[in-house]
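Repro:
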Amino acid sequence: MKIVQILPELNEGGVERGVVELARELIKRDFDSFVISNGGKLTTQLEKEGSRHFGFDVCSKNPLTLPTRVYGLQKLLKELKPDIIHVRSRVPAWLVYLANKSLKIPVVSTVHGFNSVSFYSKIMTKADKIICVSGAIKEYIQKHYKTPEDKISIIPRGIDLEKFNPDNIDKDFIQKFKQEFKLQNRFTVSTVGRITQLKDLETFIRAVSILQKEDRSVVGLIVGGVREDKKEYFNSLKSLIKSLHAEVIFTGSQSKVAEIYSLSDVVVSSSKKPESFGRSVAEALALNTPVVATNHGGVLDIIAENKNGYFFDIGDFKDLAKKIYRAKELKFDGFKYVKENFSLEQMVIKTVEVYKNFEK
């Protein structure tokens, strides 16, 4: 069976990593795996693990180039002759919808987020089969688009339990990382992901500042890259840290994410916008690190409050500070918990079942 996954880019992010992981597992199961994207830092890993990548502009929203790109994508799909096209985002979904009209290749979409309700977003529900990464996402698209029940499968994003395994952690990296950022004997509170306004990093910074007034061993880590269009926001965060006299370190993007979770005492997810699933939350829990998250979206399905983490209201940095301090006392077997509920293997098995529905 020949599968083509299409997404805007292959840089950092949960969607991108999910595509690469699924592609690797498809190869192991003797599928032909192809990915079409505008490229990015994960392209090398994707191809090293056996999939083929085709660079194509499925990222731009420029309507003037749309006809040319639709024609180019149609030509590429004719050459590849996939059994299934799996779209992961709205721009690729529109391009596929237009390019595939005459080809009539079965299409699967994965709805990864709470996109704005619009004609533009509705394209994700036009696929033959729709995967939702959480029950919250399923409720959302059914409420706004009246999506038929029989088209939907709920498949939580799978956690790679080889990579996010306490026994497989690169201890040398952790030692060097702690030395580089002077984290020895510190109470480390981390947040991981791209630096954007939706992550509400102001609330994270304010909570860390409160904790530091009581305990000078506390240090905040913000782990993630800064896109060019987010530089102004990034500078505003640095100004806030300075005004609060807080100690919060920007580490930039890091490839050893599992190690970051492992060395952290508590991980925070302070997003304003509901997370469709909350991959970083599940990954951190697999490393036995407690998580404090805003109480909405897919994370409600992941965190077991008072057992492996806590919830707080959006923007309530005082409550976040209290919950962080409380969370550090939690002891649990997070690896077992994630293995039983959110493993990559479960995600792959369920996704393959969706693909198999189209076999003649």
